[in-house]
Specification:
single chain; mainly alpha; Clc chloride channel; 2 domains; two-stranded parallel sheet; 2 strands; 66% helix; globular; transmembrane helix; ClC; Cl-channel_core; membrane
Amino acid sequence: MPRPRLTEPLQLLTYLLKWLLLAGLVAVLAGSASAFFLFSLERATALREAHRPIVWLLPLAGFAVGWIYYKLGKTVEAGNNLLIDEIHDPKATVPLRMVPLVLGGTLVSHLFGASVGREGTAVQMGGALADQIARLPRLKPEDRRILLMAGISAGFASVFGTPLAGALFGLEVLAIGRMRYDALFPCLIAAIAADQVGLAWGVHHTHYAVLEVAPMAVRSVLAVALAGVLFGLAGRLFAVSTHALGARMRGWVAYPPLRPLIGGVVVAAAVFALDGWRYIGLGIPTIVESLQQPLAWYDWLGKLLFTVVSLGTGFKGGEVTPLFYIGATLGNALAPLLQLPFSMLAAIGFVAVFAGAANTPIATIVMAVELFGPAIGPLAAVGCIASYLASGHAGIYRAQRVERRKFDAPVADRPDQPETPPPSTR
């Protein structure tokens, strides 16, 4: 006997109502947590800038954060990778302690001068808070996966003010070559609503203005594609170097709290010896400056080194804003060589280095449009896709899987990740 015609529409209505409610709850939690984090981060940054000698205490701050994670945070130390692993292979609810630990660890890192970002904190808070909702009765295991993805999207969107890019990031970051479209609606609702929750709390995101965009022409497309390759290599260098230093530190230093202590000594000494104040913290003023005027060619390299040392030795935070800095300043430096407007290429580098390092080209193309306007969209797409291809299969997230290769070549630089075999053609 055929089913009644209203069955599928009623199922769709139930699905929409269910995920409007759940994604809205995720958005309120993640957006509020991100707002508190951003306000606190602003205060920590202002305090550090007003009392610069505080950077000498970075080694002790690193030891304190390392000791707290060693005693209380072993189950959540994997951070973003834990969330991605739980989406791929659910095992246990992400401990709620991840929220205060990553929040406190990131604020301490910024207060005392480590070069770290902020997206990791917002994403981890969003994911951990969303996973607590999965404890509600009558939710299926598959619902938990989608809730985690919605938490990632909500955290990303609310910390950067880019709801569409945030929604796509939660779908795209899990695996190279595959997106989970079954989570598209929840991730979109969570990202848009979380951004609005942050704005309702009074969050103000940085405004980035591009002074000039080159016209679409063969020369400009080829020049941006070449720049994109270099952006991808920079993203790959960042990811590989951070992972390599982290592995070396684990091999050299058995006691975990000593690793950020050593990293703190190196960073603090380098700040005062090299006058490297512009390379610590988020570096947003330098990013804005890169869109307005030419900068020193080596700024991107300075930020890369300071961030690799900070993250590789165990300081908490994120990789994305430092990648924005690296890309923007590298684009600023490349612009005269490629005869492109420095403001435009800085903006493209801003998103393209991140596209290559995180293997998320679609999210970063949309982010370019959200941050810089639609005029830059086509050339930003060229730069992001070229960067994505040039970075190979390395990435900043070790738990990210390779579902489809970017091109017909072995995945030799991801030995920790087994390659997913192609689907059967039978």
